[in-house]
Amino acid sequence: MELLLLSLCLVHLSGSTFADRNDRGQVERSPVIRVKEGNDVTLPCYIKNKNIVSERFEWKKDGKKDVYLCERDSLSGQDKEFKGRVSHFASELKNGNASIKIRDTKVPDSGDYTCHLGNDQIFSVRLVVDKVAKLQIEKDTKVGSDGVLLQCLVSNASPDFQLNISWFDSSGNKLTEQINNTQSGKIYILKTTVKKSDDYRCVATMDELSHQVDDYVTVKDEDLKNTSGSNIPLIIGLVALAVLALIIVVLVIYILRIRKRI
């Protein structure tokens, strides 16, 4: 229990603990650490009241990939996908801290990590790297429409979570909302039509992952002029074409009658 509590101090994550071996040398359970793609993460490995400066320790992913091998403060035997992104806390080795830091995490980094310290000590942790949703806004000032159409497109969301997309005006009033259960590779679109100039904000939230992305778009008076009333020139043009066609028909009939008389 003391080991568990000390480990919790190393990682500022609610509910994160790490497992050790049982009497038969088996890893009993692995905690889960979640991180957003692109962020750094620390994976804990700690021995109470022990100086491990001169000891060898190594980290592996999924039981086979060499994440980090440290022996007398030298590094070797590292898989290419982790090169340049993993480091340990050299000044903390004297306190038994064999934790590592992975920088710029990527979705493929997700997996089960084990820390081997000496011959007997093994710590295990599961890392989950969540995709960071991408948000894009499109503004459509279509001729003859009743206002400016705004579209909020959300992609790259981690699957199997709840995604909430909302449109707001500059005063914080919610214009429309859409709630989805995310699926891999799917793009989610929330539309709204606005009829006044303002700054409009689209927000995409995944509460379970503490993720939120947002963006703004400005609708100007010129945008609204291009929609409401913009069909008048088209109507005038159509009427002019109709009148011209009628004149041509009348002239043709008149010429034909004159030729018959001759």
TrEMBL record:
One GO CC term of this entry?
external side of plasma membrane
The protein's location, in the record's own words, is: Cell membrane
Q: Where is the secretion signal located?
A: 1-19
Bilayer-spanning residue ranges = 234-256
What keywords were assigned to this record? Cell membrane, Disulfide bond, Glycoprotein, Immunoglobulin domain, Membrane, Receptor, Signal, Transmembrane, Transmembrane helix
The record's principal subcellular location, in a coarse class, is membrane
Alphabetical GO biological process terms = cell surface receptor signaling pathway; cellular response to lipopolysaccharide; immune response; negative regulation of T cell proliferation; positive regulation of T cell proliferation; T cell costimulation
- Out of the domains of life, which is the source? Eukaryota
Note the PANTHER family from the entry: BUTYROPHILIN SUBFAMILY 2 MEMBER A2-LIKE-RELATED (PTHR25466:SF14), T-LYMPHOCYTE ACTIVATION ANTIGEN (PTHR25466)
Q: Which Gene3D superfamilies match?
A: Immunoglobulins
Q: Which residues form the Ig-like domain?
A: 35-126, 130-218
Instruction: Kindly list any coiled-coil regions of this protein.
Output: none
Q: Which InterPro entries match?
A: Ig-like_dom (IPR007110), Ig-like_dom_sf (IPR036179), Ig-like_fold (IPR013783), Ig_sub (IPR003599), Ig_V-set (IPR013106), T-cell_Activation_Regulation (IPR051713)
Q: Which gene underlies this protein?
A: LOC114856231
Q: What is this protein called?
A: CD276 antigen-like isoform X1
What Pfam families does this protein's entry cite? V-set (PF07686)
Membrane topology per record: Single-pass type I membrane protein
